[in-house]
Design a protein that fits this description.
By secondary structure, the chain is of the alpha+beta class. The chain is 41% helix and 16% strand. The longest helix has 21 residues, at 3-23. The protein is elongated.
């Protein structure tokens, strides 16, 4: 063995003994476990959080009649996340796909229990009395968290409520303007509005889009994680936005 080989062997031995001393100390393993636990936490901070959904505008106070004949309105919705939709018991061109989508939303939000409501407003209150809506609800995956609303007065205040709910959606406004006054435009029935706990409209989703329900669920999670309580609820832009992406 040469002198160089001997020196290298001695140096290697010292390194190995040093490593053995470090590894043999309890503090090393404590530090190692701590780093292993810290790594996933640091990774979560590196993941960019989605921006909060805009606050498009408030829902003015209202009180209508539900499918059970009871008064129901903003007092029942304050403090809950809710999704607003339109229904029509006698509209065969709208109902099949729409009701299937709404039932899917109801099923996907079941874990939210009392913190969520699905609120369906009739677009034909003259026909959709509480009795009609009650039978209609029982045929379409009804639950206590899915409320069907109508109005008994003439002119129908439900029309005013729907106008307020969809006031910030360009697609709805264009469709509403194009519809004849004596018919329900089928384009209106598939748009839903996401409303937060402070009765502020946050986004719109066209349920005819293949990914609409997935985007809606992400929107609900966005509102839950970034509620922004106390912030003003006013239109984010002067031009009403289209459906949320």
């Amino acid at each position: 063995m040469t002198h160089d080989d001997s020196s290298a062997s001695v140096a290697e031995g010292r390194v190995q003994r040093g490593i053995a001393r470090v590894v043999g100390r309890p503090v090393f393993w404590i530090a190692l476990v701590g780093l292993m636990m810290l790594f996933p936490i640091l990774r979560t901070f590196q993941v960019q959080q989605p921006s909060p959904l805009p606050r498009l505008g408030p829902i003015p106070a209202f009180e209508l009649t539900d499918q059970n004949g009871a008064a129901f309105g903003t007092d029942n919705l304050l403090g809950r996340i809710w999704v607003a939709s339109m229904v029509c018991s006698q509209c065969p061109t709208i109902n099949p796909d729409l009701l299937e989508h709404l039932a899917t939303i109801r099923a996907k939000t079941k874990n939210m229990v009392d913190a969520f409501r699905l609120v369906s407003f009739t677009v034909d209150p003259a026909v959709d009395t509480p009795e009609i809506l009650s039978a209609f609800a029982k045929l379409n995956s009804y639950s206590l968290r899915w409320v069907f609303l109508t109005s008994l007065e003439v002119p129908a205040p439900v029309d005013v409520v729907l106008s307020n709910v969809y006031a910030h959606d360009r697609a709805h406004q264009r469709a509403w303007s194009a519809a004849r006054p004596d018919e329900v435009d089928p384009r209106l029935g598939h748009m839903v509005a996401l409303v937060d706990m402070d009765l502020c409209v946050r986004a719109y989703y066209d349920l005819r889009d293949d990914d609409a329900i997935d985007r809606l669920m992400r929107g609900i999670n966005n509102v839950i994680n970034q509620p922004g309580h106390g912030l003003p609820c006013s239109a984010a832009t002067t031009t009403p936005p289209g459906p949320s992406t």
